[in-house]
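Project standup — Tuesday

K.O.: blocked on the structure for the chain from last sprint. Re-posting the sequence here as requested.
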Amino acid sequence: MNILIIDAQGGGMGRQLVASVKKEFPKAEVGAVGTNSLAASNMLKAGADYAATGENAVIVGCRRADVIIGPVGIAIADSMHGEITPVTAAVGQSEAWKLLIPMNQCRNVIVGVKNVSMSSMLEAVIEQLKEYAKGDAC
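H.V.: unblocked you, prediction finished:
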């Protein structure tokens, strides 16, 4: 399984995602793409198999991934304080299975989604990955 984790800003969420996914799926290839070098570096330190930075890395990574994980903003142009560019529409266009974590910030609010702890969201991501790995995902 080829898993791509995308994050922006400081890569804090991405760092936690990489660590959790690598712990639960040690044989999976986990790649990290940061919209900036700090985010990419933090995800690499957390155990990602590789890390890259920038628009082209998002495009190439999305083409190769089986699963893409990140905050919902990775699929919304100009979100995350402008770090997600229209070019990075590759997330939405990818055939990969996407696990988008609801983050009600940066003027993007997902109505009906309650604010929950990061640890609860990480647990939910792992559970969804288990369903995907078993072939039970839609």
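K.O.: great, moving the ticket to review. The beta strands are 2-7, 29-34, 50-53, 67-71, 97-101. The radius of gyration is 14 Å.
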